[in-house]
Design brief:
Layout: E1 2-4, H1 15-18, E2 24-25, E3 42-45, E4 48-51, H2 60-73, E5 78-82, H3 87-98, E6 104-108, H4 121-131, E7 136-139, H5 147-157, E8 161-164, E9 168-171, E10 186-190, H6 195-209, E11 213-216, H7 222-231, E12 235-238, H8 241-244, H9 248-262, H10 292-300
Parallel strand pairs: 1-12, 2-5, 5-6, 6-7, 7-8, 8-11, 11-12
Antiparallel strand pairs: 3-4, 4-10, 9-10
Helix pairs in contact: 3-4, 4-5, 5-6, 6-7, 7-9
Length: 305
């Protein structure tokens, strides 16, 4: 399964691009409209891209009344990314989405440009789980001091899967003035530099939880996607690459199939978890049993457990 990373594709502006994905993930929606951060919001670097958007979005009311119906009409299943500043806000967002045809909900617990609620991950996931029966995917930051522990806590609280990873903090200076290039100084780093970080996060969280994982971070080719699957991902999302290559979805899908065949796998998912084989003398794959409820909800959106 190939998806877009949240915030990296405007499906209503480029519907033909959105239709190349197995599901479309929305930009994060919050309870109220947010204008986002002051410009400059995006800066290219030699190792990737920095962004400081600040969760700019029209708020849940406008999203439900105007944007979601149009997104659903495009064809691909719609995963809605939601964000807030308290567990009750996430619960309210999920309760309102429960009455829609959204296929899944991504809980953004890791935006680098707003106050991050990592310490409240358990409370947020539990509140969201109580508010909806839809599949829930917790999006976590690789900068957490103990990422596997937070992933396990999210799983115990009712998450059906994980989205790994969001961006990490970075800073770029203008070479002429030596002043920060972004309006907020630091921002979220994505692109090639994030790839090894994403691999490590997927590898450790797959082993810790056994949950389905949407792996993302610096994916530019089918070989990159296969590496994430080998580390434990059940699906792969494309982000920064879409800015330079809007057709990357179809290209990466074709390359991924070819890379899997060259290595003797019947299909890409047959390679899931092979990076864990013989690690420390342990069998390949996760060491924690996935709850039946999470297994069923993950299967609803086509993700392997």
């Amino acid at each position: 399964m190939i998806l877009n990373a949240s915030g990296c594709l405007d499906a209503l502006t480029a519907p033909e691009v959105a239709r190349e994905f197995d599901a479309f993930v929305t930009k994060t929606v919050t309870p109220l409209q947010r204008e986002g951060n002051a410009p400059v919001r995006i800066a290219e670097t030699d190792v990737g891209m920095l962004n400081s958007i600040g969760l700019a979005n029209p708020g849940i009311d406008t999203f439900l009344a105007d944007l979601l119906p149009r997104l659903l009409d495009l064809g691909p299943p719609v995963w809605v990314s939601v964000g807030g500043f308290a567990a009750a806000e996430y619960a309210d967002l999920c309760a309102r989405l429960e009455r829609t045809d959204a296929a899944a909900i991504e809980l953004n617990l890791s935006c680098p440009n707003v106050a991050a609620p990592e310490d409240e991950a358990t409370a947020i996931v539990a509140a969201a789980r109580a508010a909806t029966g839809k599949p829930l995917f917790a999006k976590l930051s690789p900068a957490l001091p103990d990422l596997p522990a937070v992933a396990l806590a999210a799983a115990a609280a009712g998450a059906d899967g994980l989205a790994l990873v969001n961006t990490i903090r970075g800073l770029a200076l203008d070479p002429a003035t030596l002043r920060p290039r972004l309006g907020t100084a630091a921002g979220g780093l994505s692109g090639p530099a994030l790839r090894p970080v994403a691999l490590a996060a997927v590898h450790t969280c797959f082993r810790a939880t056994g949950l389905p994982i949407v792996g993302m971070g610096g994916v530019e080719t089918g070989a990159h996607a296969l590496e994430l699957i080998a580390a434990g991902a059940s699906a792969v999302a494309l982000g920064t690459v879409l800015f330079a290559d809007p057709g990357a979805g179809a290209r990466v899908r074709e390359e991924l199939a070819g890379e899997a065949r060259q290595r003797g796998f019947a299909d890409p998912l047959a390679a899931r978890g092979v990076a864990h084989a013989d690690l420390d003398g342990a069998p390949p794959g996760p060491v924690v049993r996935v709850a039946d409820g999470a297994r069923k909800r993950s299967a609803q959106v086509g993700l392997k457990v």
